[in-house]
Amino acid sequence: NAGVTQTPKFQVLKTGQSMTLQCAQDMNHEYMSWYRQDPGMGLRLIHYSVGAGITDQGEVPNGYNVSRSTTEDFPLRLLSAAPSQTSVYFCASAEGANYGYTFGSGTRLTVV
Amino acid sequence: QQPVQSPQAVILREGEDAVINCSSSKALYSVHWYRQKHGEAPVFLMILLKGGEQKGHDKISASFNEKKQQSSLYLTASQLSYSGTYFCGTIYRGTYKYIFGTGTRLKVLA
To answer: Who among B29, B97, B100 is closest to A98 (CB)?
Structure first.
């Protein structure tokens, strides 16, 4: 059981570059979310999905896009990287609204 | 808009007890608790359902007061392994956004 798999684990980008953070889960979970966590801070919701084809914005969506073409995959795209997007990004999934979330191991992103 | 946790930080000696609170200004469906160790991802601990039902995990238990929209996490006879940051997580009624509280840093000393 792989759970939630995030790739890459580390990434350095130059300002203005774009990239996609990958997230895949093998638990057939309908709910998936992306969070960012800045040093010493809490988890802020970027985008979320409640099923294939259904996505919506979280609290801090600017500069990010998502898509959910399958139940398993929920990639996060950074459109034009900025230093303010330097953070640790977590993908998480849950069976439904009243279930706890399972997290991936995170992607540590640095934008220079 | 996120739930507010208190205290922000707490230091304990092994064997001491602690209470962490999670308060919301909005109606909640349920509350979940997580622990995050330094450099790792958060790990789900337990779920609290409406009606104050408690779900325990080892010597960690919790309660959910619907009227006050508040949940409390009780750590009894703390162990070194309890150190980390604790977050409450929830979905506000009427939305599907799963958001986390402000977090409480807990350190247990030998």
So the answer is: B29
Query: Does the distance separating the beta carbons of A43 and B98 come in below 8 Å?
Result: no
- pLDDT tens digits for B87-99? 999 988 778 899 9
A90 close contact with B: CB closer than 8 A: yes
Residues B23-65 pLDDT 10s: 998 887 789 999 999 999 999 998 887 666 565 566 788 888 8
Torsion angle of C-alpha atoms B36, B42, B44, B48, degrees rounded to 10 = 70
Nearest residue in B to A30, CA atom: B96
- B47 vs A100: CB contact, 8 Å cut-off? yes
End-to-end CA distance of chain A: 36
